[in-house]
Amino acid sequence: MPHALIVEDDPNSLSGLAAILQADGFSVDVAATLADAREALTRFIPDVVLIDLNLPDGKGLDLLQNLPSQPPDGNVPVIVMTGNATVESAIEGLRHGIWDYLLKPVSIPRLRSLLARIPRPYELSEEVQSLRTVLRELGRFGPMVGRSDPMQAVYDTIERVAQTEAAVLVYGETGSGKQTVAHTIHEMSRRRKGPFVRFDASAPRDTSRSFESLLFGHERGAFPGADIRMAGVLEEAAGGTLYVENVTALPRDQQMALVGALDGRTIRRMGGTQDTPADFRLIVGMERTPTQAVQEGVLVDDLVRRLSAATIALPPLRERGSDIELLAQHCIDECNGETGQQKRLAGTVLRELHVYDWPGNVRELRTTLRHAYRTSDDTIETLRSVDGSRSAAFSSVQVTVGTPLATVEELLIRATLDAVGGTRHRAASMLGISPKTLYNKLQRMKMN
To answer: Rounded to an integer, what distance in angstroms lies between the CA atom of residue 218 and that of residue 227?
Structure first.
């Protein structure tokens, strides 16, 4: 039987909460002060702690330092109970490791929804444990690929925030993997058996439905053309995770509505008269930094504060060092698995990968490699299109100090040929050499 510790100085609230948890299959220990709670922790490790933010002998958050950091089920889930006036303090607690917070008077459906995700004793999911440890040194973390220091830092943050219910902000350049991070958080969380719902605020949408309808749903007759009741993405994500991509494209009033849903844990459909429970975890993604987005007026400050407890900055591919080779090989392995072939990357391609800036990051890398895979023989010799079309990857060449001159020459020749559609006379003229000299160099490149 899972065990709960309830820390609450109001006798009526304490008895009511104890009755709810006992009815849901928990054994319960109670405490009215921090001192009582610390004494209880010397006798057992609870599976969940419910604690009032304000107690007679201190702040409820002070108890966090007395909890074991890694019991059998990972960090002990801590649910803070607070009044509206102290929501900001509860959000601050999310930064320090609390699992979630409940507004007083406590919503019983919301509480029971949280309790349903508390793992039973020693029921640590093998999938989550393997995501944390297995293959990480080899450059794999769930669906994510990379072993560079910047990515190890990202993995650490994912591991920390996934075990909480905190709303998460993921930001980084286009194509850097924000949706993959969001999905990894979902898969490592206690919501992983629920749905993962993606909503792209910048994607083309059905103009007959407003953002309010898409997010919160609508009742029949709510607006002209609303012939049937329809759920919004917040309802579709019930019990799971809602990932809002390009959140800065949401109108400001809908961003504020998201804040209200996060705080009140309820939603109301357009045209509706009753609130319904909102059981979702919010993850949002954007390209700008939070500070930049607020300064530009595309992100409301209240939403940033709700998201600030769990923020993940994704590094661009150009700052990930040898990760580019891991990602390239992973992409080719995927293609081989799909086609049943056994193509491989030549050393020349690996050099090409490192001299390009990859403004489209991992997405651009995958697109480029898949195109090269389709147009190559058993060995992929170059990323340049075989039809002579210009590739974005060769409109410029970047060279690291210390690169061998022979390699620099080869990269420059390939990039120039690509820029002129493969016409050797034009390429030779641009390079300041004769066509014969270019031909000889190309022959040596082919032999190498």
So the answer is: 10
